[in-house]
From TrEMBL:
Signal peptide feature range: 1-31
Keywords: Signal
Superkingdom, taxonomy of origin: Bacteria
Alphabetical list of Gene3D superfamilies matching this protein: 3.40.50.2300
Upper taxonomic lineage: Bacteria, Pseudomonadati, Pseudomonadota, Alphaproteobacteria, Rhodobacterales
Native source species: Pseudooceanicola pacificus
GO biological process entries: amino acid transport
Annotated protein name in UniProt: Transporter substrate-binding protein
Pfam assignment, any one: Peripla_BP_5
Keyword Signal: yes
One of the record's GO molecular function terms: amide binding
Keyword RNA-binding in annotation: no
Amino acid sequence: MNSNRRSFLKTSAAFGAALAAPSLIPGRAAAAGEIEVGVLFSQTGGLSIVEKSLADATLMAIDEINATGGVNGMMIKPIVEDGASDPKTYNEKASKLVIRDRVPTVFGSYTSASRKAVLPVFEKRNSMYFYPTYYEGFECSKNVVYTGAVPNQQLSNFIPWIINTLGKKKFFIVGSNYIYPREMAKVSKILIEQNGGEYVADEYLELGHSEWGAMVSKIKDSGCDVVLSNVVGDSVVAFYREFKNQGLTHDVLPICATVTSEIEIAAMGADFAVGSYTSFPYFQAIDTPENKAFIERYRAFVGDPKAVTHHALESSYFQVFLWKQAVEKAGEATPDAIREGIKGQTFDAPNGKVTVDPDNLHTYLTPRIAQWGADGQGTIVEAYPEPVRPMPYVAYGETPDNLFCTAQGLDSSKL
């Protein structure tokens, strides 16, 4: 284990042993010259295949900020907790961080199930949660800063491109059985029909399911010419392997995914994904000096010269810097101050310029599509020229001139 990461985990353990100490005032230094924050990702369970890297990226950002003087001269002290790939555990750990540790900010979650599990904690206690994962939208909370893609930054470019560029019009939609895949399917169906395609099936298996034989057989017999995958976690590995094992190839029947990233491909083996596609704002393949430097720093931090970067990891990294800028602008780290300070913040992230929308606290991001190669890396085949405004309710008619989610809250009359 890299010494930087090991030191953070030791620090976290020390915090756990010190919980009997007097409570700390939120937004004030934990000790002289310190600010505590929560880091809540799954270190164990089926989702740890992805979430360990999100925790590492968060700790790396904290390390880099501390190395350059911290936040207003104060060092950031992370309290690391394990969500254990279980929404109930996530809720318990979030409650511990907010109520017992009294941290004003937590960075965490990968799945929408875990985000939904912790959201009541942050809204009831008026604490701030920074969520780094692409998600299905349809949420408007003043207690969450959303730094991953929403559907108009991931599907609004993808579906038309599949139909018009690949010439594929018959979609088999498949996903893991929880809120993100089901909501993404709803958005996809609207876009498929708007662009002259059709969906022949909409099927689900439980999160973590590893037996994909029957589902792949159903795909083969469906008459589809493209598979839209919203499969999540280690199920991605089992799905792609079974896809190839049954003789299906991506040049004839491509999987076009909203979840499959460099980290799942590294886990499954690149041969199983060659020729398939994914839509994300960030890929390791982005060919800029800034991204190349980011990759090298991440590999050095985790002590693995072959470690891969991916969208949720990159968002986990840059959101800490957005938080830092918000605290510095506000002059304090209370939740209310962070909420106001984060509005309109910009940062030159590895994927390019990102900006927090002052209305809905989601992030402007640049949509991209990549095709996976034999080296486990994507070749970017389509990219927008500039970042796109986040619209979490785009599937329900939201437009830049008719926002549903604003600083005043959700206008439910528009739904």
